[in-house]
Amino acid sequence: MSLASRFSPRSGKHLTQVTPAGQEIIRIAREVLSKVDAIKSVAGEHTWPDKGSLYIATTHTQARYALPGVIKGFIERYPRVSLHMHQGSPTQIAEAVSKGNADFAIATEALHLYDDLVMLPCYHWNRSIVVTPEHPLAAKSSVTIEELAAVSAGDVYLWLYRTFRTGYCV
User: Fold this and answer.
1) What are the CA-CA distances from residue 126 to residues 23, 97, 165 (Å)?
2) Which of 21, 57, 115, 170 is the most exposed place for a label (fewest CB within 10 A)?
3) Per its UniProt record, what Pfam families does this chain match (predicted)?
4) DSSP for 79-115?
């Protein structure tokens, strides 16, 4: 019996199925090929640092509101880098980074469920209370969550706006 027949039985000239051992070999081979691609990518990054691909995973909110200006500046500065965006939920984008399908993720939620990832501050995402000048909260310089909870929901509008520090995360 040949080695090949142990992993993929034949019926005449045709392979009929892949055995469990064959499936394991295929899985390992895919991992090896993925590592070879990663090695080529790293070598290329060091040979041509201004050329290559960058895979960013992010949420819809970040992609739509926070990143367009940053991406425009990045593309102008690095025109030979192919930029790829993967949009998903915080869990999906963390999974993309964890599995190596994205170089990094940008999210506002804490991705504490992933022990294999490191979270770093990137920029501040401010949340503001917007009220009319006559509203009782307008006289305060800051509002606690308890003070906000004491006001009826019909009186308070939350307005999210972005404020970046001087350095962007890409």
Assistant:
1) 50, 25, 11
2) 115
3) LysR_substrate (PF03466)
4) TTEEEEEEE--HHHHHHHHHTTSSSEEE-SS--TT-T
Residue 69 lies in a domain: yes
Q: How distant, in Å, are the alpha carbons of 10, 52, 140, 161 from that of 168?
A: 57, 20, 31, 16
63 within domain boundaries: yes
Mean pLDDT per block of 10 residues along the chain (170 residues) reads: 59 74 87 82 71 88 89 90 92 89 83 77 74 82 79 47 36
35 part of a folded domain: no
* CA 118/CA 115 separation, integer angstroms: 8
* DSSP strand pairing (157-163 vs 124-130): antiparallel
Tokens of 144: 């606690």
CATH of the domain at 102: 3.40.190.10
Count how many domains the chain has: 1
Written as six digits, the tokens of 48 are 């041509």
Helix locations, the chain, DSSP H: 3-7, 20-47, 60-61, 68-77, 90-98, 145-150
Q: Is 38 inside any structural domain?
A: no
